[in-house]
Design brief:
Two copies of one chain form a homodimer. By secondary structure, the first copy, chain A, is α/β, with parallel strands linked by helices. Chain A has helices at about 10-30, 45-60, 75-90, 105-115, 125-130, 145-155, 175-185, 200, 255, 270-290; strands spanning about 5, 35-40, 65-70, 95, 165, 185-190, 205-210, 230, 235-240, 245-250, 265.
Chain lengths: ~290, ~290
């Protein structure tokens, strides 16, 4: 292996400790405890797991978690009422609505109802607009894209003037990450799954972000020697040699790419843990702003 | 010259005739005359010229132009009151706020006050967010970017699966055009003025959009043979052989590039006239939607 690991697990642990220390300071100096409200509608098992991880890590970082676990058949009006109540609650500094919502609910309208100052997940449409445009800043950027940038920064990977390639313009990760890289001064490439010569375009990248939802698609010969490779994929592939009969893999063929890249995220343990760390960091930031700290 | 001209003057003339015919039909069938309100604050000469061109072309296309020419020292509150009145006016189907506004006014807040259904200029932040994301459509897309796409479509230049390069991620043109091309299925490149090897990246382009604000920067050897080259630049350079002592040029060295490209926009007469044509088309569309036509 020649690539340095972009170790999301270790980095996120460092960040969570930093957040905890700052939260303690905020409590001591301003008597404010950062509070995150997690809004979960219905009982989707994956969503429940994500939300409980977020709540647990929130509390471990010395912050308050307000779980709002709502029935699957809640009406849009009732859901908006819950959001309004959280907007008005001074103990709540961040509001996260776990997506996807059940089909009968309007995600756009729900996200747009969140107070911009509490939009720690960064998906309020005004924040998406600000993320898109030059020279304006969102109140908060989406957490997984932010986690990708934070990993690059913590490992001193330059962005400005470099060439970035994002495979997969997804709303949750690919597009916002692309915009963050662009506004940090990278020359940007964005490809679709149907783009011809994905391999050739990927080889241009100093920074390659794989968000293309295809297990181990990015091979060693897709990568420029020395590139930083960020894998936001997550999926299971059958593997009878593994204890559980499957293996968790990303969009990058790690074994091949680690021999070529300069930096690489593992899956698991790369961008996943960074996402929650960024959520905690955004919530802390919101609490600090609320007291002008 | 080997390139076919992407003739914005002729194409916009065709579109304006189409709009006029549809406006007449709308009047005959639904007794509705499309109405565009042009909001001009202060007396900036360039802004006055643009606005009066828009108003004149609007009337020539059988539509109503409501000029709201407001004093330079209008307060933000008064300006928002004007927008509210236009939002409420059933005869107004489109509202265009001519930018830039004087420094004491808040452009973001002003654009966000426009009724989404009347945002024919496409710069309401919710429309920017929808333009950014996959699988959602803005009520209207910004007019100059839309004009670039319309020119490509009218000249049968394929977008899907092609490689597009946008030089200059400007808020008004570069970024929205990039997003439109991406969501039409192009593989996208976006460069900054400071990006190294702009020439090399430009040579990748099947569709090259120059929004880099540098007269005649794009040279013949920046262009892949057969590429479609769209120039959104507009500036004056000294030219003592010209009658007025200057010549209007774009970001592309037309004389060089026309020998290499497959299609090229002239400046003037390219994307400029298309912008107003798209404004009229958006206003017509809004009027049609208002009666479900």
């Amino acid at each position: 292996m020649t690539a340095e690991l972009l170790d999301g697990r270790a980095t996120s642990s460092t960040i969570r400790q930093e957040v905890k220390a700052e939260a303690e300071q905020l409590k001591a100096q301003h008597d404010v405890v950062p509070g995150l409200a997690t809004v979960l509608v219905g009982g989707d098992p994956a969503s429940k797991t994500y939300v409980s991880m977020k709540e647990r890590q929130c509390e471990q970082a010395g912050m308050r978690a307000f779980g709002r676990h709502l029935p699957a058949d809640i009406s849009q009006e009732e859901l908006l009422g819950e959001i309004e109540a959280l907007n008005a609650d001074p103990g709540v500094h961040g509001i996260l609505v776990q997506l996807p919502l059940p089909d009968h609910l309007d995600e756009d309208q729900t996200l747009a109802a969140i107070d911009l100052d509490k939009d720690v997940d960064g998906f309020h449409p005004l924040n998406i607009a600000r993320l898109t445009l030059q020279d304006v800043e969102p109140t908060f950027a989406p957490c997984m894209p932010l986690g990708c940038i934070e990993l690059l920064d913590r490992y001193d990977v330059d962005i400005k003037g470099k060439e970035a390639v994002v495979l997969g313009p997804t709303n949750i990760v690919g597009l916002p990450t692309a915009l963050l890289l662009l506004h940090r001064g990278a020359a940007l490439n964005v490809c679709h799954p149907h783009t011809e010569d994905l391999a050739g375009i990927s080889r241009r990248a100093d920074i390659l972000v794989a968000a293309i939802d295809e297990p181990r698609m990015v091979k060693g010969d897709w990568v420029k020697p020395g590139a930083a490779v960020i894998d936001v994929g997550w999926g299971r592939v059958k593997d009878e040699t593994a204890e559980k009969g499957y293996r968790v893999v990303g969009n990058v063929d790690f074994d091949q790419v680690k021999e070529v890249a300069g930096h690489i995220t593992p899956v698991p343990g790369g961008t996943g843990p960074m996402t929650i760390a960024m959520l905690l960091q955004n919530t802390l930031l919101s609490a600090k702003r609320s007291v002008g700290a």
